[in-house]
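Lecture notes, continued. The same structure-token format from the folding unit now serves as the input rather than the output. Read the line below as a description of shape only.
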């Protein structure tokens, strides 16, 4: 009888242990599946944010280039118009001769000039001129100015097609020079027919498959799994102007087939589809690694359940949870850091500046205390690029950031806003100190030794200054004022700053 009870007790204990192991196994597998699925969703969201931010940064570069080109051409046209007025005032009889020989010398080749006298064209530098009356052809020009000088009606303007062509060339160079993590890259297709079909688009820019540039694309093209990604992309763009989609593609420099997550944005003024994609195989690897760790830990707990039972299971589960949570947090922090870091200067990028400005503006609405906002632009940077090349230009940008960081306070932040333009935000700087502090910034750059690959350069910057005001709706209002002040500083001679309608050297 005793032996029978012993067998029953032993069997009960064994049954209880097996039941605990079974319940632990079942519940842990379910928990692991939920955690793995949630991890995949979170990582996908982070990757989507990274893709969208990278593509929209390129869109922002296009808009910045448009503004810069228009500003540059308008300034050049204004200066030449003034020279023509002075020439006519000096000697009206030789006006047309001087117009061709000297007054237009050095004018940007993209600028078209038309001179009429009594509705008859007497001079033009536009060999393909088909413009009879610019008032009837305003849409053909991005910027223009017309003046009446004596009996002459003079028009100078830049045709939209020339402006767009110049901007497209600059964006192509930017995309080719850009470096992204996770083997990602940006490509551009130009839509020819929004209805889709054969030859619906043209491959314009592809930094890793340059030989395909100029190829026609078809919405009937299928990926390696039989999907039609171009059709999916076009449908999403026509509906929302942007789209996330997945397709199967061979990895770059590899025969491996993997799932690719892509984001595309339609930039309608150019009929451009600007897109970027990343392979998702690392998400699967991370999920498999998570599952493998879970199963290894579960095996250990099974072996120890006979000795520690529920207490051991709880401890091991807690340890696993902490390890996985820390691993996940570190992974997320690394990924988010990439989103806020400028790849060239390794400092803060525009996204970081936008989020910080949003926080500063919210604080201002509550306290009334505004930081000082500086918009800083390297003078004559295009000349540096054209003369020494983009590699030297990139190093000049890095050295400029270094010069600014040497003199700003620990609480100040410098953000690369775009190209050679920077945003500096000084929290706690009193308006009475603007003149002194801005002079320090100007001198820091002007006196900095810009020695790049044995080339010594003289670099200066122009600065626009502003701060939040009570009637501002968003922080963009202060940034816009700083940007306007910057252009005034440049127009007044560069190497100086402008603030509150006053120019200070």
């Amino acid at each position: 009888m005793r032996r029978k009870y012993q067998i029953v007790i032993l069997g009960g204990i064994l049954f209880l242990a097996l039941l605990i192991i079974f319940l632990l196994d079942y519940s842990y597998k379910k928990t692991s599946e939920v955690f793995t699925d949630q991890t995949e969703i979170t990582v996908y969201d982070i990757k989507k944010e990274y893709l969208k931010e990278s593509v929209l940064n390129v869109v922002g570069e296009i808009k910045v280039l448009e503004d810069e080109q228009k500003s540059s051409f308008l300034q050049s046209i204004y200066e030449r118009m003034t020279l023509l007025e002075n020439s006519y005032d000096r000697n009206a009889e030789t006006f047309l001769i001087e117009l061709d020989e000297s007054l237009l010398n050095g004018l940007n080749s993209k600028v078209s000039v038309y001179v009429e006298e009594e509705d008859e064209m007497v001079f033009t530098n536009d060999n393909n001129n088909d413009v009879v009356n610019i008032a009837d052809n305003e849409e053909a020009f991005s910027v223009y100015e017309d003046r009446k000088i004596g009996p002459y009606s003079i028009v100078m303007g830049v045709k939209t097609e020339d402006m767009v062509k110049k901007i497209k060339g600059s964006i192509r160079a930017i995309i080719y020079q850009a470096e992204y993590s996770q083997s990602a890259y940006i490509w551009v297709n130009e839509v020819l027919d929004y209805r889709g079909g054969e030859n619906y688009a043209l491959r314009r820019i592809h930094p890793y498959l340059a030989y395909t540039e100029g190829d026609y694309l078809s919405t009937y093209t299928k990926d390696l799994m039989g999907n039609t990604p171009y059709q999916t992309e076009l449908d999403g763009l026509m509906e929302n102007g942007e789209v996330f989609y997945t397709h199967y593609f061979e990895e770059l420099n590899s025969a491996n087939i993997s799932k690719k997550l892509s984001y595309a944005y339609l930039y309608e003024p150019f009929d451009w589809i600007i897109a970027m994609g990343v392979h998702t195989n690392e998400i699967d690897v991370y999920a498999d690694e998570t599952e493998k760790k879970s199963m290894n830990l579960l095996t250990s707990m099974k072996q120890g359940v006979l000795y520690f039972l529920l207490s051991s299971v709880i401890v091991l589960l807690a340890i696993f949870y902490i390890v996985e949570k820390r691993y996940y947090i570190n992974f997320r922090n690394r990924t988010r850091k990439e989103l806020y870091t400028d790849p060239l200067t390794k400092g803060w990028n525009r996204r970081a500046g936008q989020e910080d400005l949003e926080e500063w503006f919210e604080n201002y609405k509550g306290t009334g205390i505004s930081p000082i906002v500086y918009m800083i632009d390297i003078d004559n940077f295009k000349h540096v690029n054209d003369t020494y090349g983009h590699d030297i230009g990139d190093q000049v940008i890095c050295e400029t950031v270094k010069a600014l960081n040497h003199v700003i306070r620990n609480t100040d932040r410098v953000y690369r806003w775009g190209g050679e333009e920077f945003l500096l935000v000084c929290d706690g700087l009193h308006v009475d100190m603007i003149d002194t502090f801005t002079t320090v910034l100007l001198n820091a750059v002007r006196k900095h030794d810009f020695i790049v690959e044995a080339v010594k350069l003289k670099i200066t910057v122009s600065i626009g200054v502003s701060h939040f005001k009570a009637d501002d709706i968003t922080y963009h209002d202060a940034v816009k004022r700083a940007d306007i002040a910057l252009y005034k500083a440049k127009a007044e001679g560069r190497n100086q700053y402008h603030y509150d309608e006053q120019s200070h050297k």
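Point for the exam: The chain has a mean pLDDT of 82.
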